[in-house]
UniProtKB/TrEMBL annotation:
The gene coding this protein: argJ
Subunit architecture: Heterotetramer of two alpha and two beta chains.
GO cellular component: cytoplasm
Source organism per UniProt: Thermus scotoductus
Protein name: Arginine biosynthesis bifunctional protein ArgJ
Protein localization: Cytoplasm
Family to which the UniProt record says this protein belongs: Belongs to the ArgJ family.
Pfam family, one: ArgJ
InterPro entries per the UniProt record, alphabetical: Arg_biosynth_ArgJ, ArgJ-like_dom_sf, ArgJ_beta_C
Record-listed E.C. numbers: 2.3.1.35, 2.3.1.1
Keywords: Acyltransferase, Amino-acid biosynthesis, Arginine biosynthesis, Autocatalytic cleavage, Cytoplasm, Multifunctional enzyme, Transferase
Amino acid sequence: MAVRLPRGFRAGATRAGIKPSGKPDLALLVSGLPASWAYVATQNRAAAPSIHRGRALYAQGGALRAVVVNAGNANCATGERGFLDDRRMAEVAALRLGVPVEEVLTASTGVIGVPLPVEKVETGLPQIELTPYADAFAEAILTTDLVPKVAEAEVEGARIVGIAKGSGMIHPNMATMLAFVVTDAALPQEALREAWRGIVDRTFNQVTVDGDTSTNDLALVMANGAYGAVPLEAFFPALEAVARELARKIARDGEGATKLMTVRVVGAGTEEEARRAARTIAGSALWKSALYGNDPNWGRILAALGNSGARFDPLRVRIQVQGIPLYAGGALPFDRERASQAMRAEEVEVWVDLGEGPWEGVAWGCDLTEGYVRINALYTT
């Protein structure tokens, strides 16, 4: 079913020939009104030109009208040409829309180190048909993803729609993900920016697939005010729920994954320790492999916990997988076959109590399979 964008937003995509597959690969997301916006980008020091340009625009504090995205080419590690090509992509989109180039954000995803065929962008952008629906945009931004990722919510009449891509090179701060969330609520930019950083930390930055942080990722939210004002205390929880659903969908669609893993850590001394402990368990290659094999090897969970930096006494720790107690200060007797069968579900939950305090955190990941190795062994060949 087609997902309608909030009032005042339109989107579309085309086949520009950037992806070797010939699939849609160039997309536009446009607001008919100047929008307030918040933006969080990768911490990778080899960040792409699109990230450098996005940070500069963000610091200027102006409004945003559009995002242009190409998929199939990261336009990263391409020298000075990469910065010129990124700027040109924004200029062509701005000309198409009749808006200032400073109000157009760029995003790229795909292979690193290959020059962007900017002439294909110049030819393709005028061909994009803009509609009030998210579906074509959501499809065009994919790379190794198996499915588009869209989430939506409503707050007292205002709508929120989120669109994301991400499958591999996924790890906190951030991941190889692009996330675009739009709303017709009227929101003060300062309040939106203050809230978005925490929302990203609790959602997108709690996803890990393979421990690698991308050069191109970003999470953006735009609010154009076409509906009007809504209470912030109602809006921000709904915004976080949309981001959380997108984060879970990214983890479930991890390259080669067969199941989603949710790690819930309670009883931590601080919120950061809880989140860090959950992320470390979700990112453990040993535990992810055990998850794939349906092996309730709780020792790998405890070992990952010990590498997380979170404070705990092993004698007070408790571990459960799929609600089955496996460890409580020591090994517990349990039916290994029953536990293994329980792990064959599409979503597996790991629950850990550190026994240190009142804080908790959640992270999402997936199992590690032969499929992941195949995809990444042959990525450019």
